Amino acid sequence: MKKIVISTKDNSYDVLIGKGIIKKLSKELNKRKLPSSLFVIIDKNVKHKYSDLLIELGVKTKSTFVLTANEKNKTYETLQRIHKRMIEAKLVRNSLVIAIGGGITGDVGGFAASTYMRGIKYVQIPTTLLAAVDSSVGGKTGINFNNTKNIIGSFHQPALVMIDTNFFNTLPKEEIICGTGELTKYAFTTSKVFSNYFIKNLSQIISLNTTVISKVIYESIKYKGDVVANDEKETGLRKVLNFGHTFAHAIEVEQNHKIKHGQAVVAGIACALHLSNKVGLLEYEQLHSFLNIVKPLKRYVNVSNYNRNKLFSVMERDKKNDDGEIKFVLIKDVGETVIDYQVSKKDVLHSIDKGLSYFVK
Ligand code: GLY
Predict the structure, then answer these.
(1) CA atoms of 204 and 251, how far apart (whole Å)
(2) Minimum CA distance residue for ligand 1 atom 5
(3) Structure pTM?
(4) Which residue out of 104, 238, 337 has the highest number of ligand 1 atoms within 8 Å of its CB and is therefore the one to mutate?
(5) What's the CA gap between 286 and 290, in Å, rounded?
(6) Which atom of ligand 1 lies at the shortest distance from residue 228's CA?
(7) pLDDT digits over 216-231, tens only?
């Protein structure tokens, strides 16, 4: 089992990574003296596939909330239902929420914990590759509202993250691609060493080679942990982790969530690369060499007929904006990103058309 410690100003917690480590859940909770009054929020698909999971783990819960985890359900209404159940279960300040599932379960579960009694502790057990490499770590929690992704939320760091790579074995291919989408982000934002490893091992990632998967999770979380430690509340550096995401969130909304987040990130990165070239940060040859990192994934990502103006207006509502200006994370080279870059609407529309051209079939 590998361990990474994430340290922020007020918190320090472990991310544990390994095969079959979920069996140690009770032991790891006890070791950290985490509360024994438990409330589990579990993705409906995970509950279905691993029906006796909690019994097998010897976990006694006050109540278990089964979440139908999709973007349309990531709402106030769902949050209210969770809070109602938490009250019925008589959770107290010293209770613990355990979120078991993908990014949506982690985000909603974390937000429910962060808002119940002004914030109680929670543990993240990501069961998708996307949640493992990104959303389960760093304390971003939230829900969608007013057709805007994650616009209501909080920063609330988990008390522990346990990544059991065995969960990935039962994931549909689409989910592996979503995780690979977030890994593509790291391939551009971290280092040439990671980028080369990602390019060389892409097919092993998609086929879930154990050694390769553990390494990419470890390296991604290590990098993300350093970023979060330096800028927990995303005032600067952490914006790097949004590379491709301004486009991606707008694509998800414009496509009415028919495309999943990680797939939209792949398309969003292609748009961000074209935009970086359009504004002169990235040479033409470099653009094409970088697009070759994204293109092997294009057969897994479909964007239907899109409305570029609607896409643009969704971007205008993005929470990453400032003073009415859309701000982008752009790239000069691997590991050399530029944050808060302002561009003209014309350049954004150009990049949408160029970037999405690979994904419209
Ligand atoms: N998913 C980007 C972040 O956690 O900052």
Answers:
(1) 28
(2) 241
(3) 0.95
(4) 238
(5) 6
(6) 5
(7) 999 999 999 999 999 9
